[in-house]
Amino acid sequence: MNIRAVRVEDLAGMQDCNLHNLPENYTMKYYLYHALSWPSLSYVAEDHNGRIVGYILAKMEEVDEQDGQPPTNHVPHGHVTSISVMRSYRRLGLAKKLMLQSQEAMSSIYRAAFVSLHVRKSNRAALGLYRDTLGFTVKNIEEKYYADGEDAYAMQLTFEQ
Predict the structure, then answer these.
(1) To which H or E segment does residue 4 belong?
(2) Which DSSP state fits 147?
């Protein structure tokens, strides 16, 4: 397995991985926006044939999430938009490695104070990774966050500065 920064030519493989594994899907334009805006925050995991078997799509938050306006005392922080690993490559630690790589870049390059993400309340495996392995805490529950009406845990991990 090889984990490396995303390149534009990886985007179709990332989208394929997303479509196979997650109910929330994104347009190619959205992947491209992340890759071009924050090239050091998104990573892919590729197998020995160079096939994308996992990815993390991340960004720095630019506006206040409450009202959509640029915040007055903005604390730089990252956000994990999406992370996915193909089923046959799970339980190998790839999601953890992808998360740690992106978190390190958020902290060291952008001086992020913390990283946030959303996870389905029903996704026990992801919740275990975020809370038990990586140390995220649940900040609140966002009701009906997902298109199918499922609630999400809004989670956060504060970086040591």
Answers:
(1) strand 2-5
(2) T
